[in-house]
Amino acid sequence: MSEPAVRVTNVSKHFRVPLDRSSTLKYRVTHLRSASRYRDLLAVNDVSFNVGAGEFLGITGPNGCGKSTLLKILSRIYSPDSGRVRLAGRVAPFLELGVGFNPELSARENIFLGGAVLGMTRKELATRVDSILEFAELEEFADQKVKNFSSGMAVRLAFTVAIQADADVLLMDEVLAVGDARFQEKCFDVFSDYKRHGRTIILVSHDLSALNLYCDRVLLLQKGHLVADGPAADVTAQYRRIVGAMSEADDHEHDPDDAMVAENRWGTREVEITAVRLLDDNGNQHTSFATGGGLTVAIDYAVHSDVDDFVVGLAFKRSDGINISGPNTRTADSHVRASGPGTRGTISYAIPHLGLLGAKYDITAAIYDGFLNHAYDHIEDVMSFRVVDEKGRLGMVDLDGTWEQTVDGQSRAYGRAG
Fold it and tell me: CDD domains, per this entry (predicted)?
């Protein structure tokens, strides 16, 4: 079995974060006691993993989880407080593209300057200038000053120079967050070629689609801990569940009942909505749900006057205002009877398999008379909920279709589209 290209063993790193803003000498002199107050931040906590030669490893996690700190430890910018790091071969860290560039120089001159920072000779660079400019799509701007470039042009040049390094291990921190999709595709073609030649790539990114598409394996960090290490699809799905749980926790900090007395409510209240609850398959209240799982909207009501049959309706819309659906009891041929003043009840709308894809959604709840002319109680955007799609599919809804392949007259079904 070959030796790992990267070996990280029980690595930890902490920082002292000042609690006071001591940016000036005057402040430090006049606040001697407060200027010495700090809190300890454990950015990376006892992390261990190996990366094989030629492996494409992704690292992801919420902001502040320690991703960039870990990458800087691998780059030898930071030294770990404890643990060991071993990297086999030459390492090229792409943490900040364009380091060493001079905006007053032309693209051609900066190729030689940036290449020198990477340890390349002028003779080596001279043979690559034309191919670098071609890959960066800057042939027409070779002799223009970089300060006149757009941000996309500058990034293309910086990245193309950076990948000239003859390294065994490439470390990248969100370097593909800018640039158009076509250029990103070209970059990943380069990475695929690196893999074929046995080079190791470690990419820190929030782009879960890119991690799924290109990475052999993904690490998931949370609060400095390594909480998952496995196939890209499995780990990114776990990350989406974590994000959904974090969003739900944030939602609980804001009482959904606040909407019950908000300005976006109207009606005469002969029948009043007393609560709106979102329930999972087990009847537990949540504000985060999974695509394909169950969701039930329970509307609690109280009848205050002698009214006839009434209609209960809902409206679902995405947070950007796009209307998704507006079911109500009338179109479902369900007659809701008031049963006289003082009656309390619950009307539930159950979705056994939620087809919505990942996004935030708003719900409007309303009760009208049987002809939908008179509003008893109408609450616009009474609640919000999030949908987490573990597969990270694009679009608005899962169409629940199936794929089928036919070869030489023989058909093979692949199940749901997913």
Answer: ABC_KpsT_Wzt, Wzt_C-like
CATH T-level fold of 258-388: Coagulation Factor XIII; Chain A, domain 1 (2.70.50)
User: Mean pLDDT of residues grouped by 10 in the chain (418 residues)?
Assistant: 86 82 61 63 93 91 90 91 91 73 90 84 90 90 90 83 82 68 77 82 85 88 93 86 70 54 82 94 90 94 91 93 92 85 93 93 93 90 90 86 86 67
pLDDT for the residue 39 = 77
Closest by alpha carbon to 196, among 320, 54, 387?
Answer: 54
Judged by DSSP in three states, 221 sits in strand
User: How many residues make up the chain in this entry?
Assistant: 418
Calculate helix-pair angle for 151-162, 181-196, nearest 10 degrees: 10
Residue among 217, 222, 252, 214 at smallest CA distance from 239: 222
Distances (CA, A) of 88 to 3, 77, 81, 194: 9, 17, 21, 16
Which residues touch 22 (CB under 8 Å, ≥6 apart)? 28, 31, 34, 35
Sheet holding 38-51, edge to edge: 38-51, 6-18, 82-87
Question: What one-character DSSP code corresponds to residue 355?
Answer: -
6-247: CATH number: 3.40.50.300
Q: Residue 91: how many CB atoms within 10 A of its CB?
A: 19
Listed by start position, the domains of the chain span 6-247, 258-388
Report the distance separating Cα 113 and Cα 101, nearest Å.
Answer: 7
Amino acid (one-letter) located at 350: A
Instruction: Write the CB contacts of 70 (distance below 8 Å, at least 6 apart in sequence).
Output: 8, 11, 13, 44, 47, 59, 204, 221
Tell me which residue of 91, 80, 81, 153 sits closest to 119, measured CA to CA: 91
| Residue 7: other Cβ atoms inside 10 A | 15
Decide: 109 and 83 in contact? Cβ < 8 Å.
no
Q: Does the global pTM surpass 0.85?
A: no
Measured distance CA(69)–CA(394) in Å, rounded: 31
Report the distance separating Cα 43 and Cα 68, nearest Å.
10
260-304: per-residue pLDDT in tens? 555 789 989 999 999 999 999 989 898 889 999 999 999 999 999
Question: Which residue type is seen at 239?
Answer: Y
Task: Using alpha carbons only, give the angle 162, 165, 169 rounded to the nearest 5 degrees.
Answer: 100
